[in-house]
Amino acid sequence: MVEEDRTAVWDTVVIGGGLLGCFCALNLTRRSVKTLLLEKREDVCTGISRANTAVIYPGYDNRPGSMKTNLTLKANREFGELCRKLDVSFRRCGSLLISCGQNGDGTVRKKYRQGMENKVPGLRLLSGREVLEMEPGLTPRVTLGLYAPSTATVHPWELGIAAWEAAGELGLHTKFDAGVTAIWKEDGCFCLEINQERVVRSRTVVNCAGIAADQVQGLYAEPAIRIRPELAEYVLLEPEGSNAPGHIIFCETEDRGKGITLVPTVNGKLLAGTVNRPCSADSPPVTSAGGSQKLIEECQSICPCLANSIRVRSFAGLRPNPYRPDSPGARLCGLEPLITETGDGLISLIGIKTPGLTCADELGKQISGRILDALEREDTGFREIPPRRRYREYLEKPEYQRIVCRCEQITEGEILEAIQRGAVTIDGVKRRTGSGMGLCQGSHCSPRIACLLAQQLSVPDGRIRKDGRDSYYLFQRDRGE
Fold first, then answer.
1. What residue spans of 135-263 are helical by DSSP H?
2. CB neighbours of residue 180 within 10 Å
3. How far apart are CA 36 and CA 15, in angstroms?
4. Among residues 171, 155, 134, which one has the least CA distance to residue 86?
5. How does strand 226-238 pair with strand 270-278?
6. How many Å apart are CA 247 and CA 177, to the nearest integer?
7. Which is more confidently placed, 4 or 394?
8. Which residue of 206, 207, 245, 406 shows the fewest CB atoms closer than 10 Å?
C-alpha cells in the first residue's frame, strides 16, 4: 500500500545526490527554496561523482560563445574561492596538452586558437623542447604542447559532500535509500513515489539522477535525450623518482581515439585514465585485466619514468554518453541540449559529462534560477555558504591522537567526525577522510573503521557495508541458528 502525505508540499525535489544534485540543492537552499533531496543509495556522491579524472578544465576545448564555454570559463576562474568556502582540497597545477605527430599537432594548434578566442588565461603554445623543459619525464617523441596554467584538480567526492553539508546547514532535507519509482501530477503538484511505498509532493522537480536520468525522466514524459552508458577504467599510481608529472597531462593521439590523461592528485598520487567499454546502467563498476594493462602501457609510453611506479589500485566508474533517439549516431557535446524542461516544472539534466565537475556549481545556479521562475517567486539573492562544521577544535582529545589509517595518518577522531557527518559505510568514511587510500588500500584500517561504524550506528558488525547494498564487509556464515 502506498502511503501519501498530502500535508507536506516541497518547493522542489532534487532527484539524485551526485555532484550536480548536491550543487543544485545547495544553490536552491541558498535562495531559500524549500528543498528535498532524494538519493537511492545510502550516501551522496557514490556514482559518477566518485570515479572521474577530477579535472577542473580551463575552457579551450569548447566552441566560442557556447553555454558550455561561458560556464567553464567562469567556473574555472572562481573555483579556488568556491573550494576555500567549502573547505575542500584544491590544486591549480596547470596542464599540458601534448602531441607526437602531424595529426595531433594540428589538433593542438586548433585548440590553441580556440582557447585564445575564448580568452583562456595564460595559454601558451610550446615546442617539443619547451614541453620537455617543463616535464623532463615525458617521452622525447613530443612535438608540440599547449600549456594552460588555470587547469586544476580536486577530489570530486569531497567537493560534492561539502556542497551537500553546506546545503544541510541552510535547510536541505535528504532521504537516502529513496529510489523514485513513479512520477505523476495531481492537484497542481508533482507526486513522486518512493520505492513503491510512499509518495512525496512537490511544486517542481529537478532530475539529476546521473546514469539513470533518462529513465527517471521517462517516468513522467518521454525524454528528448537518452543515455548510452559506458564503463571507464582508471589506475592510481604512486610515482617513483623526481621526473613524475607535476602538471596534468592530456594526450592528443594521431588517430581519432582519445588519449589518456595523467592527473597529479591533491594528495600526491598520480591518476591515469581512461580505457572505456560499453555497459548498461546496472553494470557493476568492475575493472578488467586487459584495461588496466593497457592503461599502464600507455602511461609508460607517454611518460617512461613511470615504469617503476607502484600501482596503488585500479577502479572503474560509469559515464553517460547522451544521444537523441531520432539521431543516435550524432554526438552531443554541448550543455544546452542536455538541460530539458517539460514546461510544467520538471527540469532534467541528462547526460552531463565533461566538464560536469567543473561546471557543477554554475549549473546549480542556473537551475536554481529556472526553478525560481517556475515557482514565480522573487529572487532575493544568495545566502552565504555557511562555514563548514568541524569537530577538530577538539584536537586535544585522545581520539585525535590515535592513528587508525597508518598510510594516510587518519585518526580515530577524524573517523568519528566522518560518521557524525553522515558516513554509514567504510567507503563513506574514506570519501570524507582519505582513510584507506594509501598503499595498503585499507587492509590495516578497514577492520577498525568497521568496528567504529558498528558502535556509532548501533548495528551488528555483520551489517556494516563497504560501499552500497549487499557489500557487507564481514562474511557471516548461516549456521541455521
1. 156-169, 213-218
2. 23
3. 9
4. 155
5. antiparallel
6. 39
7. 394
8. 406
AA letter at 210 = G
The H or E element that residue 397 is part of is: none
Residue 137 pLDDT level (bands cut at 50, 70, 90): very high
Cβ atoms of 98 and 91 within 8 Å: the answer is no
The angle that helices 446-457 and 412-420 make with each other, rounded to 10 degrees, is: 40
Residue 344 has pLDDT above 90, yes or no: yes
Tens digit of each residue's pLDDT (9 = 90 or more) over 244-298: 999 999 999 877 667 899 999 998 899 998 999 999 888 888 899 899 999 999 9
Q: Look at residues 182, 206, 179 and name the one whose alpha carbon lies nearest to residue 352.
A: 206
What is the side-by-side order of every strand in the sheet holding 55-56? Answer: 55-56, 152-154, 90-91
pLDDT of residue 391: 54
Strand, helix or coil for residue 352: coil
Assign 476 a pLDDT band (cuts: 50, 70, 90). low
pLDDT of 2: 46
Is the full-model pTM beyond 0.90?
yes
pLDDT of residue 477: 45
* Alpha-carbon span 425 to 466, nearest angstrom: 5
Helix (H, G, I), strand (E, B) or coil at 29: helix
Cell numbers representing residue 55 in the block = 579535472
